[in-house]
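Need the bound structure for adenosine-3',5'-cyclic-monophosphate, inputs here:
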Amino acid sequence: MIKPDAVGAGNTGAIIKMIEEAGFRIIAMKKMHLTRERAGQFYAIHKERPFFNDLCTYMSSGPIVPMILEKENAVESFRKLIGATDPQKAEPGTIRNLFAKSIEANAIHGSDSDANAEIESNFFFSKLEQF
Ligand code: CMP
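Answer from helper R.:
Posting the output first, comments after.
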């Protein structure tokens, strides 16, 4: 999911280019604007964290671009491509190193397991859109 800071800064195309050049196939993609409530549902796992309210406000502040991506070993490969959550700690040349503004407005989200990738894909896309 390309996040509101990166979409708002006009970096959607540059980020998609990096994703494709890294060998990912885009299975589904759209542009949409989350409500605060839907942002809270997506990040429900973080609801006890001190940054949860700000995260929901930020994630509903502008459009996002969710995608379903396919590649061998996709979860690990994508996490390498995007870099660490905190852009200060992200490797040079990673998406967050290049485009993130802060630990919160960090340009992009990647699923952390195959199981969560399926849950998160189903959050944004119906089976009809996927295939
Ligand atoms: P993401 O990888 O999408 O998963 C949870 C998100 O919460 C994270 O990216 C950031 O956008 C945000 N986040 C994580 N840690 C912090 C933090 N310490 N302060 C503020 N936001 C955070």
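Comments: The mean pLDDT is 97. Residues 114-124 form the longest helix (11 residues).
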